[in-house]
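#data-curation
PF: Archiving a pair of folding outputs for the training set. Convention for this channel: one message per protein, sequence first, structure tokens after, nothing in between. First:
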Amino acid sequence: DLTAYPLDGFLPTVRYGILLREHKHLSPQAAALIAKLRAELPHGPHNPSSSPAQRIPGSE
């Protein structure tokens, strides 16, 4: 048997993101993963937990 216990009240909300460097090549596998994530978790009013891309100062 497998039992799941929700830990929402004990653990903080975690946000994940993908960092991409400009003018850098992505492997076909990485590009496919990013496309799959974008299709599954689109940014928009129906998914308020997602956020648009942000430029990080000094990362150029």
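PF: Second:
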Amino acid sequence: MDHPLRRPDEILAYRPLRQILAARPNELWTIGLKDNVLTAMHLMADKNIGFLVVMENKAIVGVISERDCVRRLVLAGKAPEATPVAAIMVQDVVTADIGSALADCLKLMQTHHIRHLPVMQNGTTIGVLSIRDLLSEAVAITPRSSASWNEND
């Protein structure tokens, strides 16, 4: 979609998640609340991802990351096969709406010190964006040279 914006900061402020998600495979990796952490770790390893959305009755109830597994399981000396996901997941989930702009999502991630952001549409989790996804998008839409910008425009 063409628009009159030229500066990267303007483009980032404008670019909605809807456009970013539309260009990606529609994959949402989830795990159940009662599944054990070993199952979660295997799923993350098999899919080459570092984050899962924890669902119960089609609703998001938490999230779990590789970092959570290390800090709350391994370093705590817990057995992954005997520990339910619910015991180590993050319950206060920060999410973004599908209509949010890329820049707003980056601010959310920075404010809350998170690297993954579930994306919601009408109360339903429809995807997850990582800081890597958002930075890749920012690099892709940023012009190669800032020398052509006219600061007086």
